[in-house]
Amino acid sequence: MERRLGVVGIVLEDRKKAAPRVNQILSEHGEIIAGRMGLPYRGRKVSVIALIVDGNTDELGAMTGRLGALPGVRVCSALVRKE
What we know:
The protein has 2 helices and 4 strands, in the order E-H-E-E-H-E. A hairpin with a 4-residue loop joins strand 2 (about 35-40) and strand 3 (about 45-55). It is an alpha+beta fold. It is about 30% helix and about 45% strand. It has a 4-stranded antiparallel beta sheet.
């Protein structure tokens, strides 16, 4: 299956509620995560996580789908074909 390289942005509206489950999902998909940066954005009262990912569409869709199904969690991805 063709692999994709890209960025996944995650916004948590309530970090204390969502973070444990988000971290569990990210750990379960750690093999497709090349890098991660997270920071609290206090001015907007959210937390933001940026991931660099490398995986096939099934792996990436499984991770982003599970994350996006969590209450108070928003997910957006930008992927390109890895040559």
